[in-house]
Amino acid sequence: MTTDTAIVTGAGQGFGFALTAALAARGTTVIACARDADRLHAATAGLAGVTALPGDVTDPAFREQLVWATRGRLDLLVHNAGELGPSPLPRLERYPLDALRGVLETTVLAPLALTQLALPLLREAAAPTVVTLSSDAAVEAYEGWGGYGLAKAALDRMAAVLAVEEPLLRVHAFDPGDMRTAMHQRAFPGEDISDRPEASTVVPAFLRLLDDRPASGRHRATDLPVAG
Questions:
Q1: Which end of the chain is more exposed for a tag (fewer CB within 10 A), N or C?
Q2: Candidate list 95, 148, 174, 206, residue with the active-site label
């Protein structure tokens, strides 16, 4: 199955970029967004079918731009953009509440708001799919990961409820596992994270999810084996 039109948030680097490149290689029209305009344009330059749209998903006007850029067709919405929060990761006893508001705004509220705008288009698609990027921090308790974990847990719940309310859609919370990304490095400042896999190695599991179209739910990349 090839998705015709997709929106991928947080597409300037890491998993978002790797996924954008893989979807483009399949012939998908991708609306790719990220905050850093220079990085986004440099990363997506030369990718056929990709429209780079710099902006912040927490901005209501920008969310409208994203949906408008689909030209009335949307098959896949990927909520990849997220916010780690302060680094080094603070314990909950001293977690800055203003920082937590920012994490929730980017990781939970913006995806919900964008989904609300996109739903009329998704309902018209032949195989509509919404995917949120999850984390094991949403289901496991790790010291220092309270702010990020509670935001991802809320995002998981949003996906689960949306799946019940929109039974014609496939709604998946996809947990890619640890990856060698800039965000993961910020979570472990000064540490060597070279043992984590590159984001591109996780993309085939995501594509397997799109192709197999299992029932809506939470899926770990390690549970989606791929050939080769």
A1: C
A2: 148
- Please tell me whether the overall predicted TM-score, pTM, comes out greater than 0.85 for this model: yes
| Long-range Cβ contact pairs of 53-57 (< 8 A, separation 24 or more) | 57/9, 57/33, 57/81, 57/106, 57/110, 57/111, 57/114
Place of tokens 């990020």: 148
CB 57 within 8 A of CB 36: no
Q: Which of 41, 108, 29 is nearest to 69 (CA)?
A: 29
In order of their start, the domains of the chain are: 5-223 (3.40.50.720)
Let me know if 148 is a catalytic residue.
Answer: yes
Distances (CA, A) of 133 to 16, 46, 93, 156: 10, 26, 27, 9
Instruction: Measure the CA–CA gap between 189 and 40, rounded to whole angstroms.
Output: 24
Closest CA to 83 of 186, 12, 188: 186
Q: Is-contact 186 139, C-beta < 8 A?
A: no
**C-alpha distances in angstroms, 172 versus 78, 102, 212?**
10, 24, 12
